[in-house]
Amino acid sequence: MRIGEVAERSGVSVRALRYYEEQQLLPAQRSPSGQRRYSPAAVERVQLIQLLYSAGLSSASIVRLLPCVESGTSTPDVVEHLLAERARIDAQVHALTAARERLDEVIVAATDPAHTCTVSGPLDT
Questions:
Q1: Which of 2, 47, 58, 115 could link 109 by a cystine bridge, Cβ 3.0 to 4.6 Å?
Q2: Domains of the chain by residue range
Q3: Which pLDDT score, from 0 to 100, does residue 122 have?
Q4: By CB neighbour count within 10 A (0-12 exposed, 13-18 middle, 19+ buried), where does 51 fall?
Q5: With a threshold of 0.70, does the pTM exceed it?
Q6: Would you say 2 and 28 are in contact if contact means Cβ atoms under 8 Å apart?
Q7: Tens digit of pLDDT for each residue in 61-111?
């Protein structure tokens, strides 16, 4: 599969795919004319990379974790890293949930004529 097709199917730019290759996140074979060629699994891999990036993982972390995803095997070091990333994500989820709940309170106060839209606590500026 050519780079443009992978970009279109995965919803990322060609530039992003080149970056992923530079970071050793996405392997590509080269045709005799130098064009990148990707396996059919590349689209799924790009989607996983995007998911991990959106969760806040760095490219270096993703490089460490991808062999585990591909082979299903890992080392104790990789498992420790996975657990640390999961704990970090759990903390983010907790913080985002608290922010959403606080915003819900503000929305109720702002839309209910019986309430005054006053904000106290973490949303104060």
A1: 115
A2: 1-72, 74-116
A3: 61
A4: exposed
A5: yes
A6: no
A7: 999 988 888 888 888 998 999 999 999 999 999 999 999 999 999 898 888
26: CB partners within 8 A, 6+ apart: 17, 20, 38, 42, 45, 46, 49
Q: Tell me, what DSSP letter sits at residue 72?
A: S
Asked if 12 and 45 count as a contact pair (C-beta separation under 8 A), the reply is: no
Among 6, 55, 49, 53, CA closest to 29: 6
Residue with tokens 């790009």: 46
Q: What CATH architecture applies to the domain 1-72?
A: Orthogonal Bundle (1.10)
